[in-house]
Amino acid sequence: MPDPLELYDFSVEDPLAAYAPPPSRLVESVAPAVRNIPTPGKGSMEVADRAPGGLARMVEAIASNPIAMGVLLGGVAPGRRRPASRSAAPAPAVSRLQPPEQGRYFDLRRLDDVPNVPQHPLERYNPPRGVPERTQDLVANRTVRRRLGETMDEGAMAGGQRWYNADPLRDAFVTQLGPARGESAFRQYMEMVAATSPRSRVPESIRNASYYYSLLRRGDDLPVPGTPNPQPYGHIAQRNHQLNARAFAEGRMDPFQNPKPISFAENLRGNQTPGTIDAHAVNLPAMIARDPRWLATGTRVPLPTGGWQQLAPQRMFRSGELTMRDALQRPTFWSGHPRETEYAALEAMYSDLARARGLTTAGGQASAWLAGGRTTGLQSASEPFMRTFEDVLIRTAEARGQPVSRVLSDFIAGRAPLLSIPAAAAVGAGLTAGDTVGSE
User: Fold this and answer.
1) What is the pLDDT of residues 387-416, one digit of tens each?
2) How far is the C-alpha of 35 from the C-alpha of 44, rounded, in Å?
């Protein structure tokens, strides 16, 4: 039987639904704003309503371009830098149709800004034998680049550029610990978030990272890899998390062999030039291309009766057991992670597409991640990191019956991780520091 990988036509259009939002939704949302644009001699764009379809055509043209939407709603494109002064008035929203709301505890109105920290790329592995053929084909595929760009456009409208900005939390660290110690501690926590990110939802990562961070702040030993963490800080991938935490803490995280965690930590620290090329960032373009070379060589799927079944999607496709249509409905059947020889090329593609849209690399990746989630099986919420962190913080305060400011201070000082009872209070309550006071 011929090898399907040799016969497959990589130019076939992706049958999945287009990623751009239906124009009718955008017309409905943007029309009131367009009508209120002042027009010399006309008063407003209400005159467009007099022409059949005039307003709809105008809104569609504006809404299809996030740069135009940025000008319409705020005067700058998503991700464009604003002055670094923190005393300036809050910036207008530009990356989604509704302006950002004031947070319940933090001021989240300026998350569209690029943080005022050095913006620089990270060194990447340069494969001496060149980039693998499947990656060369993927990044050069015009259909992939077009549809991935459309996905970024949609994600930018949903607030993708805001996702990584954690400046409100940085400010809290600096206020409590001072500029140098605060920045160092903030970096340490974000490294633990990156360490605990594999196979985690964002709230789980925020919570579990606070446990590792608290150990480091107190000078305690990190868990021995493979040993159980106290509840509620366990995780199905905790051995990997423990190894990552030690590698970060000891300065051994290799940027060539394991570039994703370092890039993720840098993005959360405010450096939005590197790209976090995670499973979703790999699978989305691969699935758009319908390229079976990106199918996983092995994956586990849960059985209805319990337990797991080991499957080999790429072999199944070769043998005819798996069709491309079925594979596109199973995100876990795709490779999920780039090889070290592929990371730089994929990052460059995301960077190019983001720059063309006035986004940072991190903002472009996050935008594609949000809007492409229905294809790649994204389970985390689309809200920015800071919104999720705020929710975890408030939930912890409610569980402890303490003010949010006290919980935040205890967390930053390393006295108590999030969603746990502080050690001093635990004695009086008859609890240990690891007792569960909340769950995801």
Assistant:
1) 999 999 999 999 999 999 999 999 999 999
2) 6
